[in-house]
Amino acid sequence: MTRRSSRTRHGSRSILPLALLTIAACGRAPSDDFVGGSAGAGADAATSPRDRIDFSTPTFQAVSLLGDTLLAPELPAEARETYLSRYEEARSALGRTPEDADSLIWMGRRVAYLGHFREAIDVYTHALRLHPDDARIYRHRGHRYLTVRELDRAIADFERAAELIEGRPDEVEPDGLPNALGIPTSTLQFNIWYHLALAHYVAGDLESALDAYRSCLAVSAHPDSVVATSYWLYMTLRRLGREAEAAEVLARIDEDMGIIESSAYLDLLLLFKGERSLEDLVGPSSAEATLQSTTTAYGLGVWHLLNGRADEARRTFEAILAGRSQWAAFGYLAAEGELARGR
Q1: In-domain check, residue 230
Q2: Do residue 38 and residue 111 come from a single domain?
Q3: Residue 319 half-sphere exposure, CB side, CA atoms within 13 Å?
Q4: Which of 31, 71, 95, 229 could pair covalently with 122 via S-S, beta carbons 3.0-4.6 A apart?
Q5: What is the pLDDT at residue 342?
Q6: In the chain, which stretches have pLDDT less than 70?
């Protein structure tokens, strides 16, 4: 399969607002300084991001695809305490092994879970100076570039990661936030292709997204991975007018797939398949957006689009953006992309 380089295509740039160019001039590029200092400066310097990150303050993180300023999301108190505790564990581990790739990856992940995605990018950028051929680091930095809406940089990182894993065996990727069963459901190769495909999808480059989703499905080993990939793949195929191939995707989906985490995606696929109704998925309204509600709402918006209800789809996407606490969610990001392209 030939992968298209987005850097020679217009897709990943087509929805970026002009406001981003203005803000970028005074915003942040990846820092040349690791958030904790140089790894060669000793354990204290290498593990001191806490000294330079005020986790209690919602700092600037991104400009949305619609030109809005996005601050570090505020976390519920219980989740925040859990993330801070795990951050401290990562900080201690990095103090013991300041140049270890795993320690650096976990530091970046823990900082990102606290909503400080720019600082996580700095950690990964530092890690890549020490480990320039580690696909895992490109995968994680690409994810956070995607979070902060820097689609071209995200795509470049995922494409580099894909080059580095070519011909290599896959590996399970440990969950930063384990599910109730403690069973990881994804792998390194799955995450590279999944996030690369999403970056293309959000940018409106559906042909490139299709290529990446097909590669992703080929390495989707766990039922949750199969369902998650199939959800985005189905929508991509339908929007490209490839009805027969989309129907083949749905034919492989059923209620008894042994899903652990991807219940929202499964329900949406069953809606597309005609085995769920709109009423089954809408549920009671709530003033507080959640990851689950944001995920479901985006799928419902696309369902409206596919059924010729453009106005209802737009209202659904606009309602998603009212739940600003979920701006890092893929459903929120995809809704932004829909509205930006519709301008």
Answers
A1: yes
A2: yes
A3: 22
A4: 31
A5: 85
A6: 1-52, 283-287, 343
